[in-house]
Input
Amino acid sequence: MRACFLILATLAPPAAAVEYNRDVRPILSDRCFACHGPDSGNRKAGLRLDQETSAKAELRKKYPIKAGDPELSEVYRRIVSDSKALRMPPAYAGHDRLSAKEINVIRQWIEQGAPYQQHWSFIPPQRPEAPVVRDKAWVRNPIDAFVLARLEKEGLTPSREADKATLLRRVSLDLTGLPPAPAEAEAFLKDTSPEAYTAAVDRLLASPRYAERMAIRWLEAARYSDTNGYQSDGVRDMWRWRDWVIEAFDRNMPFDRFTIEQLAGDLLPNPTLSQRIATGFHRNHRTSAEGGIIDEEFRVDYVADRVETTSTVWMGLTFGCVRCHDHKYDPLPQKDYYRLFAFFNNVPEKGFVYNFGNEPPYIKAPTAEQQVRLSEYDARLKLAADRWKSMAGKLASAQKKWEARAGTVDWAPERGLEFAHKLANRTFDGKRNIDVGADVAKFNHRDPLTLAARVKPQSAKGAILTRAEDYWEGTGYGLYVVDGKLRFHFIFRWTDLGMRVETRQPLKLGEWQHVAVTYDGSMLAKGTHLYIDGKEVEMNVLFDQHLWPIDHKAPLRIGAGAGLGFEGEVDEVRIYNRALPPREVAVLGADKSDAQAQADKLRLAFLERHLPPDLKAARDAMEKAQAERDRYYATIPTVMVMEDGAPRETFVLKRGAYDAPGEKVTAATPQSLPGWKADWPANRLGLANWLVSRGHPLTARVTVNRFWQMLFGTGIVKTVDDFGAQGEWPMHAELLDWLAVELMDSGWDVKRLLRTIVTSATYRQESKVTPDRLQRDPENRLLARGPRLRLSHEMIRDQALAVSGLLVEGVGGPSVKPYQPPGLWNELAGGKEYEADTGPGLYRRGLYTYWRRTIAPPSMINFDSPTRETCFVREGRTNTPLQALNLMNDVTYLEAARKLAERMMREGGSTDAERLRHGFRTLLVREPAARETAVLGKALAGFRKSFAADRAAAEKLLTQGASPRDAAADPVELAAYASVASLLLNLDEAITKE
Amino acid sequence: MMTRRLFFSRTATGLGIPALASLLEGEGPQPHFAPKAKRIIYLFQSGGPSQMDLYDYKPKLMEYQGTDLPESIRMGQRLTGMSATQSKFPVVPSKFQFARHGESGAWMSELLPHTAKMADQLTFIKSMHTEAINHDPAVTFFLTGSQIAGRPSMGSWLAYGLGSESKDLPAFVVMISPGQGGGGQPLYDRLWGSGFLPTRYSGVKFRSIGDPVLYLSNPDGFSRDNRRQYLDALGELNQMKLDEFGDPEISTRISQYEMAFRMQTSVPELTDLSRESAATFESYGPDARKPGTFAYNCLLARRLAERGVRFIQLFHRDWDHHGKLPEGLPKRCKETDQPCAALIRDLKQRGMLDDTLVVWGGEFGRTVYCQGRLTEGDYGRDHHPRCFTVWLAGGGVKPGISLGETDDYCYNVVRDPVHVHDLQATILHFAGIDHTRLTYRYMGRYFRLTDVHGKLVKEIVA
Output
């Protein structure tokens, strides 16, 4: 494993002078700092080598490092010692000795006076001068000067420019994730003007496909998913946040704005809906709904995830290490972790989340189209309401007239009445009860309800009205008397999923009282109200955790439930399928002395029963408009967002454990990073401002480095997620700084940066490799050739859909479910099996594919997709037989092959050669060589022969996929062409950007 | 030519460097010392089997029956949200009878008559303890060494450290069986995932529905002859590309397609049980003929072991008996007892037990107190991380012993505690790996399965 670093080491220029940052720190960090570095908890012998003063100070009559004199430097004496007992790093702890080369570097450095430098990535970047090169003609922009200068130093020359077809396919895949359409390719190949290439680049950058391509890597970094992750892995809705990301890339939102809105959009002055949706970034982390988990343990994990994701994505720092102890390599004390933690610690959220949808805080997030429709509903409602209001005078006089006639009124609210019972025998002795049956009042966890009755309890414990299993902890809802107080339970599982509330004051035993509970379906105690005699009373919340969908067979019963009976009298039972507002409860329960309630009763009775026709029509119209609006509103998606609730205190957590608080801390940025301005608020907005401030040393570098990785396969700093002491020294340090400053100076213009990179001569090089160059630079870090990389997981499929004509384009929207082998969900998790979409959902781009975190889409994982359980910014590329099987046998690619074959036969021409050429060019853009056509022709002939001999086999092969087959095509021909098309899709070149 | 390392071979780009480096050096991964076990079969019992109803005999519990668990035993131990709000924690003894078995005199409950016959082959660790109290973090911890998602699984570490023995099967295979009628706690891909290691080290799931390996079969209507012809043409075209571009990734791709072709026969051959003897089926029990059962997977595990697959992991679900334990536990035992015993016997008869390590166990134990309603004949037990039992057999294990001891309440370990990281270190040791030296550098540090912990459980090493 160390071999790789040695290879790179050989690439480093043979330096005349050793440089601490480039040459020395990597050795000290990797081999010494774990015991003699920043981690105060694990420091050995009181020696610290990461700080100059400590390393050069006298320690026990010796000098760890004596500037200029290796032989007097204990560090040097120890690393060269032949004694196993003395040598460092210690052999007894299983460490190898330093290599001769490493020892030499240390020696040279001490001889030079052992100068220390601040870690390079902690110093804000300055724009370096582009170096002077010999081959000036090759340089198209400063990127090339940096790259070429290095090549010239290494004695290498750049490769020639790739041919036009290769270049167009490369840049199309890089900027839009899709190959060029044949017509685009045709036009480009014909265009001989010098601006042809840059014009193509501009066209690609302006395409909405660009935004989709950029979005998917961001989704992976942001651990976006359609489910919660962890064991129970319930569903969530975050796709409106994904829409936001796509739109932001499409509009080329400056990266600083992009950062601020996602980290702190809610804290901006008068935040827009869009800015609030943006904050979904930090609600994308996994959440757990596993029964029995300890709420705070998981809540702390969520906040920690935000800290670590933020530090990886914007700073390239491995803050995960600092959760439990001081960093072993970087100057990041554990306290820094919790100071960052404090920024994210004020979200009013739970650790134990709802398993069937979004967890608060969330907001309604209508799309632009939905906003228009909603405003139409609102307008219609307003019109109807205004009309109703305009009739107020008429209403008043009609009511007066009616009241004069009506005299006393016996009326109770009827709307939403589910069940009403006046009891013939009102007396319950603790044994008798009334079983109303299991089909009545079957309210589930999200259904609003009202339970009301008049009671005269004789005992301090009993069940008034229940639909619950008949033991104390049983599932279901019920209204009880417990300890003399009125109680409401709604239970899924007694111990951890349910709600229990009670009145503060007891009921009066032996007296008639009216009791009621209303519940609004929110699954929260705060959506629940208790009433006595029509007046809302104060309540104690005994337990308050959301519910799960309830399914039990217990009947609705009066005077029994939860293992209890009732002693006393019950009457006037009324159950509603809505939460009555307080004034309606008063109508039910208040006595005659309550004038307001009496007036309301009259008014409501009149409105419900006795309105004259014209008034009734107006009222009905208003209510219909309200109902329609409500129904539409309910269909509008929600998205989880960030919000700061009541501030929580933050403590350093010892060993990272949620239940081991140490020193109290407040929100602040890491001590060793510069740039915090005192006038920024100490909240997420301040943090975001700091991250994108000109003085921040990391954000721009880390960001351009990820873009570089996206285009060249490897970052300028290969460790895209670690810019600390253990991270790689940048291969082209000045180029990295130049790009970082370029990004900032351009106003964080991402499209402009990408344009600069892809129009460079460096990017345009051919990607062929000679054995000599492969040996010299196997990973192409010096960039003496263009990138040649296997396509990313989603691109492989997107391309197949595009060239076969199956791709359904359209930006944004909910996730879709393309094909997936049956049974995958069930075998791991039981429950509902994956159901693939029918129609367009099968053919959308990969970034819209439904993502279940614990059982991710297998073909995407096969091709190295991150699992999206945590933030992941590396791009991995493996090469396995499972990928071969996937591309040869997955219905996705078989269907694409059939459709590509139809295209070849329909559009290609009349001869095999023409048709093969068409398929080849549609996929690979370039012309096939004659010998390639010959191989394909031979294969086609073989397949044709085989299918002609077995037409049934041809028919079977053509059944793959849901799209209809071209009825005009001869099945034998089509099957033969489909086989060749599959072969094309499996070519190394097809799944490679070259 | 295929070297043994080349299955799921290398990457030329990105950060999965080890295989590339070793290609250039011409040397594959090697064990640190001579392995005792050439292969490992891990019979993971997901959900947390109840130790005091199966292996950890606690006669004193009869005396304590129904009494509240004393604070002197619980010592402030945190409980899950499922029982933390209980007002009482009544002790409930096992309702199953225990007896001693074999020359070693191992205690086992009546639910395990077949395993009991193999008692002298087994080594029990009754003093296992873990850190997590809920399934997801606990299983993740057991199989990846960390409660936090994203670390490589045990099998991935072994595949990374030792490569593959087989030239046409993966190094790490996973098979899953549900509890019949129930199902049980969900499992997740991460449990056999490669974490930050390159994805080629992931466990390959052998499935009982559809293709045993995803996308293995040619589509209907496309014959093996067609496929051969197809691969010949594909290989020829890829070779032209290789000649022109010189990218070694292309030559790997050519090999991988040939490997895929070989898998199309090697996997069906593997899963074809038609040549297994009637005696074998009898030994593993009637379920062995039903794909997707634990018994079937055990038989397949032996066949995988014979073919050199290095790490074979079975998951049997539904051991999570919060309630109705007397009803649920016997069912799980019926599904697993006979096949476990048969597997050990089978390996022994074939002379493979000496170099095959078999491990049985779940992610944590269960509480001595009753969760939920305690009624006549019925009880449930909550999750318990402080003590539980695993057993090992074969490859390098000292057979017929029992390590560690728990208190009379089966609540705390009182002698020879074995932490999860210790067991992981020991399993790696049997495979010839020093757990402190099998590392991978990611995000600036060298990660390993045992984090910075773990010590070899020397007492069980033969």
Q: What stands out?
A: The CA atoms of residues 283 and 512 of chain A lie 50 Å apart.
